[in-house]
Amino acid sequence: MTAQAISLTPLDLVLAALLLIINGAISIRLRLGITRSLAVAATRMVVQLLLVGLVLKYLFAVKSPWLTLGVVFIMIGFAGYEIMNRQDRKLTGWWSYGIGVSTMTFAAVTVTLLALSTQLRPDPWWDARYAVPILGMLLGNAMTGISLGLNNLLTAVTRERWAVEAQIALGHPREVAMRPFIRRALKTALMPTVNAMAATGVVSLPGMMTGQILAGADPVEAVKYQLLIMFLIGGATGIGAVTAIFAAVWRVTDARHRLRLDRIEGTDA
Amino acid sequence: MLSIRNLRARRVQVDDLNLDAGDCIAVMGPSGSGKSLMLRAVADLDPAEGEITLDGHERMSMTGPRWRRQVMYVGPESGWWEDRVGAHFEDPEAATGVLRRLGFKAEALNWPVSRLSTGERQRLAIARAFDRGPRVLLLDEPTGALDQAATALVESVLHDFLMDGGIVLMATHEKAQAARLGKRVLTMNEGRLSA
Question: Contacts of residue A261 in chain B, CB cutoff 8 Å?
């Protein structure tokens, strides 16, 4: 079923990297001014991926549940930091970070556990070879969805505060007053996932599937894995974005159904 | 009767204020003195301590939305959340009466909000408040963007509302308006009311 993968030598990679050096030469010649950022990005990529490869190799070899858990926490920490970095408007205090990290973790971990316990069933169930890549993919996608959704919600509510307040002043409950904003934020959060699903296979082959095929897997097997992953991603992103957006709505309003812009940083409410 | 006792909100303090059915109190005072903040606190739009009752019912004994349906705040800047004017009314059919009195034909309900002038927005915001049948209107510069003719239309609608037993508490910059509508005129200074 699985053909022998063609092993890459360091020389193969060096030859491929020459392409980037050509890019750099063009940039210098045309004074595009991106030589530096190109070099930094390329170096980062090489170092990060080599490190990840070594860490994963070690992780798969030692088969320690605690070490796997440790890696999971580090991944969650980085993803949470990314969510915060992508917000133009934040909730005061630790609320943006708290809502972002907790909903992302909840969604990604739940869906990963579902996949590990039903479709994949590795032995032991926490086997890092399965748990870490799947959780990573789900965290990454949930992170994108949640940060887009939260950012859309908080900027829209701040910008259109009069539209929200008018409804509240007329006696609408907060669910009604916030409904258009919830809808828009959810749409924004889920758009990348929906687009990826619609375009996949027609416009581009997904990276994971391409990697599997190059590594020698049967294309149909690779497709099955890709489908599984896309379903898991859709589920995790949806769960994460819905819980994050509702938590944020609950935070920017209060039990008296008031709009509390004083709980968003940088607004003078 | 609307009665306010020991109201403490951000930068505002009202010790004792009573408005009977048909009463209109006009509050004057410099910008930033807290007129808007007081009105917002009475509408329960901002957190505030103290007792506010309408006909003996305390605001905290009911939900915020229920309180605001009776004690309705109309801000100086009107917000719109749908594309068409009519979608902002609960009962567009019944609203045609007050719309006509404010100088609009019934077809105004089909106008897109984006085409409204500032003055039209202000009058329509008052119309949609009437559409919900409040007992108390808290008006924040209700005719600030209006010319004389439009101001007269708004004042005549408010006059009838008062005759029907409605209660109005309003902030205004215009001394003449305060005198025309207000049974009492109070002055706000640094968050405190005085006669």
Answer: none
